[in-house]
Write a structure and sequence with these properties.
By secondary structure, the chain is of the alpha/beta class. The chain contains eight helices and eleven strands. The chain is elongated and about 75 Å long.
């Protein structure tokens, strides 16, 4: 119920209206024990946990009551570790999309993701929407006119492309693909710099074209060289993207070059990111 969460509301409302979705406002209360040791080996209460629970529940029930008019909304308060509770609730209730801002603060916003966001991204059973700069966004529901899908060369990108394409079709948005070409550190020795650049670009276009064909997705491909998060950020700025779609992979699988940069992509992105 912080300011940055409140700033996320227009994005949630826009997505919910597009798909006529039910909105759950989930608040997790990490309840303190309320007890401290006394001089006699026992404990004494210092916090009225019952009153705290009541106050938090009442605050949650009155939160954002001026939003989401005409949509089905439920407000839920649960107790526990925030990231684990979010993932568990999504699993048990068949949630289709988790939407949350990051919670890095001040100067640290550019250096890290909030720990809760990072844990949710790691374990969530469904796509996760998050944004770093939502507090700077307009207060009206945004439109998704341009969607950028970041891809690498693994077969998992077929599903990511299809997800991005459906999202673009549903919102009548333009779709672009972006790929960061790896640097010379993986180069075959037989290539000079100019030849290497051309070879890597041609090879990337060929591989991603095959993935596009498998996905049934026709969209322009933007290539860039350098850090993955910087290439994605520059493409998003260049196309004025409203949303970036990336694949975050699974912890039990070998990470591709894109998936190993998920946190930095979200951190550097100029617009919200959906991680599939």
């Amino acid at each position: 119920m912080s300011e940055i969460c409140t700033a996320t509301a227009p994005f949630v409302e826009a997505m919910a209206r597009e798909y006529n979705a039910e909105v759950t406002l989930l608040h997790v209360l990490e309840m303190p024990s309320g007890l401290i040791p006394d001089w006699y080996g026992g404990t004494v209460p210092v916090i009225d946990t019952t009153a705290l629970w009541k106050a938090e529940t009442e605050a949650a029930q009155s939160y954002l009551t001026d939003k989401f008019q005409g949509l089905e909304v439920q407000r839920v308060v649960v107790e526990g570790d925030a990231a684990h509770a979010i993932d568990r609730y999504a699993q048990e209730n068949g949630t289709d999309l988790i939407m949350m801002p990051t919670h890095g603060y001040g100067l640290f916003r550019t250096l890290l993701l909030g720990s809760v966001t990072a844990k949710v991204l790691h374990d969530a059973p469904c796509p996760v929407w998050t944004g770093v700069h939502v507090e700077d966004a307009p207060t009206v529901a945004p439109e998704f006119a341009t969607i950028l899908c970041a891809v690498d060369r693994t077969e998992d990108n077929v599903a990511t492309m299809r997800f991005a394409c459906r999202l673009a079709d549903d919102n009548h948005a333009r779709l672009f693909l972006v790929h960061a070409v790896p640097g010379a550190e993986i180069a075959p020795d037989k290539f000079f710099d100019a030849d290497l650049s051309q070879y890597l670009e041609q090879d990337a276009r060929k591989t991603i074209a095959q993935l596009q064909e498998a996905a049934g997705v026709a969209a322009p491909l933007c290539l860039g060289a350098g850090e993955v998060s910087h290439v994605v950020r520059d493409a998003a700025l260049g196309h004025s993207a409203d949303l970036i779609v990336i694949g975050r992979g699974k912890a039990t699988r070998t990470l591709g070059r894109l998936r190993s940069n998920v946190y930095s992509i979200i951190r550097d992105a100029p617009c919200p990111v959906i991680s599939v």
